[in-house]
Write a structure and sequence with these properties.
By secondary structure, the protein is α+β, with helices and mostly antiparallel strands. It contains 4 helices and 4 strands; from the N terminus they run E-E-H-H-E-E-H-H.
Amino acid sequence: MKNESTGSISPDNLTDWAQVRAMKDEDIHHDADSPKTTIDDWEGAVMKVAGREVGTVRTRGRQKIPPKVQLSLRISPDVVEFFRATGDGWQTRMDDALREWVEQHKAA
């Protein structure tokens, strides 16, 4: 049997995952044997599956520039198709094109 977030369930794995998922942070007991961790504790950690390295943990710092606004926007299919066809980074290029239009049309 396969559990989508915790891997294979075996007779040795007796963890009640439903109970774990229902826990809140304040329900977790922290002591010298299981201290609360910080983001810095995870920097450079290695993820393994069945003893094989599958990746490293990377943390993000603060945004250097203000984050962009996420919104739902209707755009003509041919316009979206054009930008998507330019490959990875197409949304940034679309943002750049809109920014250029705004700069050209600002009231002087």
